């Protein structure tokens, strides 16, 4: 089979790799029908995630069909259509018992496309299948479902829930890429007074408006002052960091009000300065986190009911064998307007989804 292989910073290729097979009785092998590319994959290619060894197949999000299961797998069987979660869970360790699956001590956590071969391939081996794949209802399209493998649970859990968004809040989301846009969409579920999106790209700010942002701000034009103007000088109740660079994190700490929350989602490859000389007196709560995906069943039900705008985030589709082209389009989002790219649909030219 073929997969997208990381060979070191700046080096990767769609090439022949060994077929996966069941190694443990809790494994499943899934034929990949739809897969997407994550910003974290770009961080890996830049060398920001040194744990990823050369020779690893990338990817941690997929929809597909079970083709083989180990003897201990009970919840799925060959022929089932499933969502492959970005997080694997042993189900037995201290963290898994607390639904903190991202911190699994039993061989799970974020392992696909990180510590073991991932989903950007024709087939993938999924450990701990009973807790790491989710059966899909027929009503949920693959392009919608694949966005629930990572970005929606990440934005919802690490951004909205960790940030404790409440009715009437002012919420600022710094970074209007896919994660930031999903944070906007899920923050709306809690009826904040206003959501303000901050980004450098005009196309992403337009997408933020479509997803529910009430106001937008160019990151180069003092968005902290806009937040102050909108809140009578108080600042935002919740600020979500969805970029992962020092400047965006420090901007978030300037935008939050005393007693407010900064919820960091971004993957940081460099140190960011924490200005405790200013923040210690302001009762600020700062949270970080790797997604646990405990919310995935809830988000699946909401998607099946048409409550989440997943389709609006998919701007390009490709057949699986055009992985290198898809990476190029996704990496040049400022030029291409790409939000999420989905691969694995029937072979045709890439499709830009019209703005809603």
UniProtKB/TrEMBL annotation:
Keyword rRNA processing: no
The protein's name: Alcohol dehydrogenase
Keywords: Metal-binding, Oxidoreductase, Zinc
SUPFAM superfamilies: GroES-like (SSF50129), NAD(P)-binding Rossmann-fold domains (SSF51735)
Position of the signal peptide: none
Pfam families referenced in this protein's UniProt entry, alphabetically: ADH_N, ADH_zinc_N
Recorded GO MF terms: oxidoreductase activity; zinc ion binding
Family in the record: Belongs to the zinc-containing alcohol dehydrogenase family.
Residues in Enoyl reductase (ER) domain copies: 8-343
Domain of life: Bacteria
Cofactor(s) named in the record: Zn(2+)
């Amino acid at each position: 089979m073929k997969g997208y292989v990381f060979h070191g910073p700046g080096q990767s290729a769609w090439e022949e790799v060994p077929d996966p097979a069941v190694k443990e009785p809790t494994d499943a092998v899934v034929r990949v029908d739809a897969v997407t590319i994550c910003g974290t994959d770009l961080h890996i290619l830049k060398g920001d995630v040194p744990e990823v060894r050369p020779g690893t197949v990338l990817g941690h999000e997929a929809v597909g069909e079970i083709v083989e299961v180990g003897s201990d797998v009970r919840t799925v069987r060959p022929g089932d259509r499933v969502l492959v979660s970005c997080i694997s869970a042993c189900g037995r360790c201290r963290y898994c018992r607390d639904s903190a699956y991202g911190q699994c001590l039993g061989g799970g956590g974020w392992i696909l496309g990180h510590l073991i071969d991932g989903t950007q391939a024709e087939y993938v081996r999924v450990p701990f299948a009973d807790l790491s794949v989710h059966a899909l209802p027929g009503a949920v399209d693959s392009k919608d479902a694949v966005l629930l493998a990572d970005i929606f649970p990440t934005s919802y859990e690490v951004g909205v829930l960790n940030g404790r968004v409440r009715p009437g809040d002012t919420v600022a989301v710094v970074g209007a890429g896919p994660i930031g846009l999903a944070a906007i969409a899920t923050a709306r579920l809690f009826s904040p007074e206003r959501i303000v999106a901050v980004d450098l790209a005009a196309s992403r700010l337009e997408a933020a408006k479509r997803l529910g942002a009430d106001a937008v701000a160019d990151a180069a034009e003092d968005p902290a002052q806009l937040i102050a103007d909108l809140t009578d000088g108080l600042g935002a109740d919740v600020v979500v960091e969805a970029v992962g660079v020092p400047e965006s994190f420090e901007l978030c700490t300037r935008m939050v009000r005393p007693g407010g929350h900064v919820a960091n989602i971004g993957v940081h490859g460099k140190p960011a300065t924490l200005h405790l000389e200013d923040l210690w007196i302001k009762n600020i709560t700062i949270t970080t986190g790797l997604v646990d995906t405990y919310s995935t069943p809830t988000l699946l039900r909401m998607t099946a009911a048409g409550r989440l705008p997943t389709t609006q985030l998919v701007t390009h589709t490709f057949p699986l064998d055009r992985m290198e082209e898809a990476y190029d389009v996704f990496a040049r989002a400022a030029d291409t307007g790409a939000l999420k790219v989905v691969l694995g649909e029937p072979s045709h030219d890439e499709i830009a989804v019209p703005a809603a």
